[in-house]
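Case study.
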Amino acid sequence: MTDYADQTSSFNATDFEALERSQDVNVISRPSLSYWQDAWIRLKANKRAITSLYIIVFLLLFTIVGPWVWRIDPAIQDLDQISQPPGTDRSALIVESYVAWDGETDVGNGLRVIGDPNSQAVRLAWDALENANGHRLYRNRFPVGEEMAFGIPLAEYFDNNIVTHEDRLDVRPDTYFYSVVALDDRGQVTDNFQTIEVEVERVTTLAEARERGLVDEGSPLQVGDSINLEAHPLGTDYLGRDMLARLMAGARVSLFIGIGAPTLFVLFGVVFGSVAGFMGGRVDQFMMRFADFVVALPFLLFMILFKIAFGIGPGESGVLPMLIALVVLMWPATARLVRGQIIQIREQGYIEASKLLGASTPYLVLRHMLPNTIGVVLVTLTFEIPRVIFVEAFLSFIGMGVAPPTPSWGSMSNEGIRTMLITPHELIFPALIISITVLAFNLLGDGLRDALDARMRNQE
Amino acid sequence: MSDTSSVALDTDQSFSRSAGKQLLIYAGYGFVFIVALFYFLSVAATQVGGAAGGGAINFEENSITIALRQEPPQLDHTRASDAVSFTVLTHTMEGLLGYDNDNQLTPGVAERWEIREDGATFWLRDNALWSDGQPITAHDFVFGWRKVLDPATASIYAFIMYPIENAEAINSGELPPETLGVRAISDSVLEVSFEQPTPYFEKLVAFQTFYPVRQDFFESTNGRYGADADQLLYNGPYVITEWVHSASMRWEKNPNYWNKNNVGLIDTIEVAYITEDVNAKLNLFKDGQIPNTQLVASMLDSAMEQRWNIDRFMEGSIFWVVSNFREERLTNNYNLRRALQLSVDPVEFVYKVLKEPGYMPGTSMFPYWIKGAENLFRQEHPPIEHVPNEELARQHLEMAKQELQLDEFPPLVMLADDSPVGNMTTEYLQAQFSEKLGLEIRIDKQIFKQRLLKANAGDFDILVNGWSPDYDDILTFGDYFASWNLNNRGRYNNSELDRNVRIGQTSLDQNERMAAFAEVQRITYEDAVVIPLYERGWSFVVDPRLKGFKRRVIGPEVDYRFAYIDRNGSSAD
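After joint prediction, the assembly is written out as follows.
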């Protein structure tokens, strides 16, 4: 006690003067960062995540701005260019409109072409073969050869007087080998045949060119000129519809479901989970068992039930029931996650302190608990988006989604898979865009998780 | 300090070493277990599915392995109505008459027959036996035919027997089955009386519904007749010895068949695959597991590259768009139908969209192969030429709008099969109607059975469907739009058309009949009742070692009855 008094006595007046304001005491060596700024910096350092972010932004532009730039109706059928892969030569010769053939032939010998062979029609005439009891006409893309493989049988005539045929079946600009084969008296193919090689040219008519707006009304285009048919940068599908326009239109459906549904069900999951976690006890038990019950419901079955319950008739879009089925059935994962977080946070010291200071429940939840779960929620959201895009693609693929002619990436894949071997671009483009989208969202989610995880920040 | 740490390190290492060892041992156990499991499973699989893997053609056993499109729902021919059941039945049963390899009518169970204006008589052969060795009698036909018409059987094909006296009344429950105009005069003579003159009756009795059923056997099955291999009594070239539902079947040569030396040349036919997937079947064909397969448009390029001998076959059926004529439907309006008709171009559709070489653009409700009085019907009575006309179509649509007092058409429902070609058809038509007429079309895709139910209930505006011939006479198509025909799903009702169909049914003068059907053809076009889209045909390939295999318009869609194996067959001949 006395020592203490002694010490105090050693103070003099100067000790109580104000210090000079020092410049370098409060300087913080690094800039002060908020939670989000810090996360953003760490995200930026992650190249994969940033690339994915660019891809997603590009996808959004593709979906929203794309149709304004590429003004082609995705439902319009260009029947002159069916199943065209991208980059096909599309120059066409202008010819007269198609006139039905009266069967008039030139004089000549053997199998011969009448008129110009073009993509409108190839007109063939032949002389009755020896000992023939009718003829069968074939078209091949290869010479007949030893195997006597004549190619596609086009027509069969059990009458020796019919010696002409007009081939209009999917005539493409290509080299064809036509063969006419004699039939015996029972209609069986014999080995008596003639063959001819034909070069086919792509043509269109003046009227069609005008109608499609390929040329202006007043242009001096004439028969014999050459023009370019409509451009299809990504080719066309099996009904001659523009793939690029369809991918854009399909993106609208896919991204609407892909972003709309997760946003809704994650929101619901957050509310449900935080209530359960905060209330605890019996309420928590009850709510989480309900969530378990929802997890057990079969998704596909409910999708069909919703479709019926909403009175979605045939030929109407199933997008709305799909959205609702997704929201109703997919929230429990988020709810569980948020509940776990809330229970953890509830026991933290700062919550106790806040309670002692008289904080109300809404204040506790809104100020302390939810902001601390937001990182987890955001990461869940970015992982749910690709999952839902995939579910949408799958449902449209099996025909549960959009109604034709509305495209979606899934339904386009379904259409493309039928002709996978001969026109692979019809499957590859929608499949590729689904894969890229799903991958981009997944990588972004990965990056976000790393960036937002507080524990990982401490490790650095 | 340094000592303890090294001890700790030692124990750590030995720990991790022993843990690693244990893990390795477990992994080894796991690997062995999995290998054993797979081996066991594969052995089990070969034990169970003995049929598979045998290859398409087996010379030693004189057997082949084939694929069927679907499984027959059941094989009671009194109730069968699908092409696959009919195919199996033709291989295992025989009627009074049949068709030979060249599609000519040929004697079957009946040795000879006589068709009169008021009836017919059939003399049965003595050596025709059931597969259990008992002779086939005229009573078996009487029992079978009564069974078909019994309302309790609810046979879809009962109508095909209506030419027989009292048949229609029995089928509608007005008369007991015993009053049917069919009598067994003796065990070997069958007498039929007609309701009306039926010159084509001999063609009818070759149809599967007219096959016999033996009463004592039928009753011994307790209502399971035709449900399984042993619940059927056979009288055709093959008997079914094994039927694993939705998996496989085995047909073996019937030793009791009277004509076994000429029909049924292959001893065993294994139906190892039941699939509708043409791609799967193409792969089976490439692997040499089945001797023949169908080729669709997308496979033709690679088929040409493989240098296969591609064959073609016009299947006989025609696909069309029919309108719904029920009062409450907009399509009851002539101008709307005409507008739809004028905006469809079957030539463009078949040649540019479907691209199937077997298909022919539709021009009439009667397919090209239907026979007329002397020549082909369509040569004798050419159909009206269909010229698509967008301008005119729009004018008709305007008229329809005024008549129906509509500002805007509500969406029309188009009912169709959920199949690859069905989807192409509906989407093409949807785009055509929307581009040319501005009409909104809702596509209602259904699986075949469901589509049939909805079509029967009239739950559509426009229906895309097809019709296959049942027997080789123009009437098989000609009565489709008759007001009394239940297959007329749109309930088209036109007394002039009905009158002409009646003439076609009863007249004995072929020229008069054909003239009547020419009228039917004209009415269905001019009144825009039906828009023919295409006549269906297949492209297919057959293993060159399998000879005599046929596809048929009438009868089975695939016919192996006259097929045989040629050891030296190669693609060169």
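Observations recorded in class. Residues 315-536 of chain B form a domain with the Dipeptide-binding Protein; domain 3 fold (CATH 3.10.105.10). Chain B touches chain A through 49 residues (CB under 8 Å). We will return to this complex in the next lecture.
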